[in-house]
Design a protein that fits this description.
Blueprint (H helix, E strand, L loop, with lengths): L1 E10 L2 E10 L4 E5 L6 H9 L4 E8 L2 E2 L10 E4 L11 H11 L4 H15 L14 H13 L5 E5 L7 H18 L2 E5 L3 H7 L2 E5 L4 E3 L1
Parallel strand pairs: 3-8, 3-9, 6-7, 7-8
Antiparallel strand pairs: 1-2, 1-4, 4-5, 9-10
Helix pairs in contact: 2-3, 2-4, 4-5
C-alpha cells in the first residue's frame, strides 16, 4: 500500500500542496496529467529522491517520509531508464542484490529467474549499448524488481516504444506485477495504456489528485 497524506513538495519554482491519495496493496495504479504538473516529482518523493516540505509518505502502513532511498525497498524505473553503459545485462540484474550483500548462489538463482521471466536469457552477457528499446525496458524492469520490492514506480516506461513493442510490454508489466504481487504506480500520457494496465487511475490537476 502507498499512502500520501497532505504532502507538500517543491521543485524549483514549482510546488504541489496538500496532496493526498491511497493505492491499495497489490493494485496497479496509473497517474496521468499534463507535462509539468509534478508527476515525476511525486515518484521521486515516494522513493526518497525528493525531499518533502510537509506531510507523510507511508508504505504498507510504515511512515518512510524521512527514510533513505535504500531503506524504503522501492523499485524505480525512471523515464530515461538510467542504465549503466559499462554493465552487462547480468550486471544490471545483479546490481541491487550485490548492494544488499546477497550470497552469490542467491544472486545467480534470482538473476536466472528474472531473465527467464523477462525473456532476456540470451542477452545476459551483452552490454547495454545496442539493445533495442524494448530490451532496455526489460533490463530496467528486471533491475527494479530484482530485490523483491513491495512497491514499484514507473515513470512513462513505454513512451519511447513503437506500438507493437508497447503492447508486448503492457502484457509483460501486468503479468510480472501480478506475479510479484507488487503495488505499482505508473505514469503515462497514454489513455489506452492506462486502460490496459490500471486497476485505478488518477489525474493530476493543479494542486491535488482526483480519482477518475
Amino acid at each position: 500500500m502507498i499512502e500520501i497524506k497532505d504532502l507538500s513538495l517543491r521543485a524549483g519554482e514549482f510546488r504541489l500542496d496538500h496532496l493526498s491519495f491511497t493505492i491499495q496493496s497489490g493494485q496497479y495504479a496509473v497517474l496521468m496529467g499534463k507535462t509539468g504538473r509534478g508527476k515525476t516529482t511525486i515518484l521521486e518523493a515516494i522513493c526518497g529522491l525528493r525531499r518533502v516540505e510537509a506531510g507523510q509518505i507511508l508504505i504498507h502502513g510504515q511512515e518512510v517520509t524521512d527514510w533513505l532511498p535504500a531503506d524504503r525497498e522501492v523499485g524505480y524505473v525512471p523515464q530515461d531508464l538510467a542504465l549503466f553503459p559499462t554493465f552487462t545485462v547480468r550486471g544490471h540484474l545483479e546490481f541491487a542484490l550485490r548492494l544488499r550483500k546477497w550470497s552469490q548462489t542467491r544472486i545467480d538463482r534470482r538473476t536466472d529467474e528474472l531473465a527467464h521471466q523477462l525473456g532476456i536469457q540470451h542477452l545476459l552477457d551483452r552490454k547495454i549499448v545496442g539493445l533495442s528499446g524494448g530490451e532496455s525496458q526489460r533490463v530496467a524492469l528486471g533491475r527494479a524488481l530484482s530485490f523483491y520490492p513491495s512497491v514499484l514506480l514507473l515513470d512513462e516506461p513505454l513512451s519511447a516504444l513503437d506500438a507493437d513493442t508497447r503492447n508486448e510490454m503492457q502484457e509483460l508489466l501486468k503479468s510480472l506485477t501480478e506475479l510479484h504481487d507488487v503495488t505499482t504506480l505508473h505514469i503515462t500520457h497514454n489513455q489506452e495504456e492506462a486502460k490496459a494496465l490500471a486497476d485505478c487511475s488518477y489525474t493530476l490537476v493543479i494542486s491535488s489528485l482526483n480519482p477518475s
